[in-house]
Amino acid sequence: MKKLLGIVVLSLIWSGNVNASLFDIFKEPVEICMDRFESAGSSTTTAARKCAGITKGELKCMLRLIEDGKSPRSALYRCEED
User: Fold this and answer.
1) Residue 31 lies in a domain
2) Are the C-beta atoms of residues 76 and 62 closer than 8 Å to each other?
3) Is residue 3 part of a domain?
């Protein structure tokens, strides 16, 4: 049982998805959004302003568009719920 758990944990850590880490499940949507903006070269101030009030649904949409090659700014703009 311990070996199986170890294999599962290691596979999550070594998965091919670089943008999502194992510890993202403990973060709020705003933190994940800010991480994406900062990794794309935006300042912390810009990331905080753009990501303020983001919902889980908007974040899911944003991450899908980023996977398809959109920039974080463009992805967030397309996913914002008004």
Assistant:
1) yes
2) yes
3) no
What Rg value do the Cα atoms of the chain yield, rounded?
15
Residue 46's domain comprises 24-82
Residues 20, 17: Cα–Cα separation, whole Å: 6
Domain annotation covers residue 1:
no
**Whole-model pTM above 0.85?**
no
pLDDT digits (tens, 9 = 90+) for 3-47: 877 777 666 666 555 555 556 677 899 999 999 999 999 999 999
For 41, the token pair is: 């070269």
- Residue 28 tokens, joined: 């709020």
**19 domain residue, yes or no:** no
Indicate the number of domains in the chain.
1
User: What integer pLDDT is reported at residue 10 of this predicted model?
Assistant: 65
Contact 26, 73 (CB under 8 A): no
Q: Assign 3-state DSSP to the chain and report helix, strand, coil percentages, each to 5.
A: 70, 0, 30
